[in-house]
Amino acid sequence: xxxxxxxxxxxxxxxxxxxxxxxxxxxxxxxxxxxxxxxxxxxxxxxxxxxxxxxxxxxxxxxxxxxxxxxxxxxxxxxxxxxxxxxxxxxxxxxxxxxxxxxxxxxxxxxxxxxxxxxxxxxxxxxxxxxxxxxxxxxxxxxxxxxxxxxxxxxxxxxxxxxxxxxxxxxxxxxxxxxxxxxxxxxxxxxxxxxxxxxxxxxxxxxxxxxxxxxxxxxxxxxxxxxxxxxxxxxxxxxxxxxxxxxxxxxxxxxxxxxxxxxxxxxxxxxxxxxxxxxxxxxxxxxxxxxxxxxxxxxxxxxxxxxxxxxxxxxxxxxxxxxxxxxxxxxxxxxxxxxxxxxxxxxxxxxxxxxxxxxxxxxxxxxxxxxxxxxxxxxxxxxxxxxxxxxxxxxxxxxxxxxxxxxxxxxxxxxxxxxxxxxxxxxxx
Length: 429
Description:
Layout: H1 2-46, H2 51-71, H3 79-103, H4 109-129, H5 140-166, H6 170-181, H7 183-186, H8 202-213, H9 217-227, H10 234-247, H11 251-264, H12 270-287, H13 294-304, H14 309-321, H15 325-338, H16 343-364, H17 370-397, H18 406-415, H19 419-428
């Protein structure tokens, strides 16, 4: 037991010695950084420091102060001073690079960004660890100016994001954009003071499109809800989001996304409804008669908004394709109510009657009962007659395109005994 106590005492003494040495080293590092900061400050004030000297010396000073801060051995009462030194050593290079920007001179974007991160860390540390004193000799106004610098730096991050994006360094661009978007959470000291050079809702919009350019799809997914709030280009943002699923090679995810989006806002997404109808029709065709993806979808759209024309037309098309002519006819009629000059809908109304007549006519020769056969034939003629007004409405919509309606009208007029009108159609063909 005595031996253990002795060992413990020795180890305690060694720990104290190590701490003391670390504190001494941190103090020396801070002193070196301060010396460099004061020297470069004097030269900057005298306007004798070159740009190269500012950047070189500040890099040296930053290395010293970072080591001191990282060690955790700086006296708590000295932290405010340490961070002030750090802020000065990062502010000068930042100002130098902004001078290059104003003169249109080239500069190292990555260094600008790295130094900017150090600058905002340093300013925050100084503000947090410096007690406010008021009066003529107080530091209240000085700390206000430091907060102003920290608030202004949000726009420097925005500038860095733009530069990285233009240089195709999309990961760095997004890091900068994310800093901007979370700026007041990262730096609550300046909450309410940050004024961006562009509308705030535009920032996630730019970030979203940067993520798309970099094929960083997980970032796109996370940014979309905020990006689409930039209403001026919301349509373009939606389009990019939708098409990104195709880029990923995930058509199922694409279909699910478009489905949810269109059902939520049918009227605003009619072009996407049309795209998804085409997709579901193709899938239904590939899978065979048992597949029915399209009809439930358009029924959901119609239930949400009964005035979406393309949904009704898609439903009518599917019913017609399934030879459900009576049902298709009613839905095509609804299309004409929604759009009175809709050639396709009028034509398809007539075609429903026409096809039904052809199908019934094909059965007449197989009916052995003469009376029933005659009834079927009369019904056939009746259906051809019922088709005429709808084909004529199609003709009204496209009077100069007889190839779209003249053949069917000739057939209908011929069957119903209207030979003069049939001849008129014949001349148009």
